[in-house]
Amino acid sequence: MGEFQIRTAQNIGIKQNLAGVGQRLAAFILDMLFLALFYYFVFYLLSLTNFYNNLSTWTFVSVLMLPYFLYYPLLQYWNNGQSLGKQLVKIRIVKTDNSHPKLGDFLIRWIFRLFEVNTIPGLALIVMLFTDKTQRLGDLVAKTVVVAEKQKTKLGQSVFQEIEQAYTPVFSQVANLSDRDARLIKSVITEAQKNKKYKILKTLTGRIETLLDVTKPENMSHKQFVETILKDYNYFSGKA
Fold first, then answer.
1. What is the DSSP letter of 20?
2. Where would you tag: which of 17, 86, 129, 141 has the fewest CB atoms within 10 A of its CB?
3. Does the reported pTM lie above 0.90?
4. What does the alpha-carbon distance between residue 202 and residue 221 come to, in Å, rounded to a whole number?
5. What is the DSSP letter of 18?
6. Are residues 72 and 177 located together in one domain of the fold?
7. Which residues pair with 15 in a beta bridge?
8. Which long-range contacts (CB under 8 A, 24 or more apart) does 56-63 make?
9. For residue 54, what are the domain limits?
10. Are residues 18 and 147 in contact, defined by beta-carbon separation less than 8 angstroms?
């Protein structure tokens, strides 16, 4: 499993683990299995009715193919870059700047998928093997990569820290923060302090306020605000 240096809009480098070809293949097989099970139950239920006789063959095929065409782009868009297979394998699609892809990006990936997976089987696999970031053609055009959820971090880089028992959290909304978001916040503040780019913390504060619907107190610096967010996150994670 390789590493990919994501460059955010604030020019901060964040290391992500690329999803391997084996992981992506496993997710693909699982998705095919889910779709096969879906159609099995659909055909079984339809066999109990007169639905077959009430529709033309073209309409029947069109209606049945609709879920297949919508499964990948819509589910991945609504499910934060994951199909059911990717969710089980713990990999997800992100933009090369670590932002969430737009619906158009997923549609681009799907259109190319029809060509490099369905029309020419094996083409996607060949392209992934010969690209630095394990990207297929759809990824290259949509500027996306598939990353592994599990991060290989050293103890000193971990988002987790000891919290005193008497600690009282400041922002209860932090309980809704995902592990991925917390790692990203930790990475940004670590890099900002390391490179002395403290102005970035102001931008990070704005992103956190929008994400969690919170407001930084006036008596708090941006650095103190971000550190408090992480401390609160550790508090709620320990209670989970």
1. P
2. 129
3. no
4. 9
5. B
6. no
7. 5
8. none
9. 3-148
10. yes
